[in-house]
TrEMBL record:
<dbReference type="InterPro" id="IPR011991">
    <property type="entry name" value="ArsR-like_HTH"/>
</dbReference>
<protein>
    <submittedName>
        <fullName>Helix-turn-helix protein</fullName>
    </submittedName>
</protein>
<dbReference type="Pfam" id="PF12840">
    <property type="entry name" value="HTH_20"/>
</dbReference>
<dbReference type="InterPro" id="IPR036388">
    <property type="entry name" value="WH-like_DNA-bd_sf"/>
</dbReference>
<dbReference type="InterPro" id="IPR036390">
    <property type="entry name" value="WH_DNA-bd_sf"/>
</dbReference>
Length: 195
């Protein structure tokens, strides 16, 4: 069964994945397909596709889901191991020491997002194992995203309001009892969209 997420923490997996042709083969394996079918879709030789599929299977990025007999030959049917693949920031590791940054800097936000990505991936793996064993429902979480427009002269007021709202939550729910949750809020300028 295809997972929602495969979190890659091994260099050999990242090296296997990060080849443009291999990524195209993996995309074709979103649905179960044989190497012959993938080769036809990508206008590649069957041998080349088979080589890439074998590397993907070898490193746990794809799986053989069935086998069928075609013109007297057994042909494997393969599928991607997951719908999404995340590369752990630990693959490169921290280069140099973490800088002491102002909470309003993009560098601080990068550090925070690295921590969130690592935490969410670990939780997702734990939750998937619990759901598979039918021991617990999925872990409670909340993601909220939206766009806000703030005039330049009102930015300080907006940031102060946001900080006060969050401090209010921390004060109200910051006791020592109950389940522990982490809260990470990211506020950054929206990228201009090409178009």
């Amino acid at each position: 069964m295809m997972k929602d997420l495969l979190y890659l923490e091994r260099v050999d997996q990242a090296e296997t994945l990060l080849k443009p042709q291999r990524i195209e083969v993996l995309r074709q394996l979103a649905e179960p397909r044989s190497c012959t079918e993938v080769a036809a879709r990508l206008d590649q030789s069957q041998q080349r596709v088979y080589y890439h599929v074998k590397r993907l299977v070898e490193h746990g990025l794809a799986t053989q889901v069935s086998e069928r007999r075609v013109r007297g030959i057994n042909e494997g049917v393969y599928q991607a191991a997951a719908r999404a693949y995340w590369l752990s920031p630990r693959l490169v590791g921290r280069i140099g020491q973490r800088q002491h940054r102002d909470e309003a800097s993009l560098g601080y936000l990068l550090d925070l997002m690295e921590e969130v990505q690592s935490d969410v991936a670990a939780l997702h793996i734990q939750a998937a194992a619990r759901v598979a064993k039918q021991t617990e429902p999925d872990l409670p979480s909340l993601g909220v995203s939206g766009a806000i427009r703030v005039r330049p002269e009102r930015r300080p007021e907006f940031m102060a309001d946001l900080k006060a709202a969050l401090e209010g939550l921390f004060t109200k729910y910051g006791g020592a009892e109950g389940d522990a949750f982490k809260l990470a809020v990211a506020c950054y300028p929206d990228r201009p969209h090409d178009g």
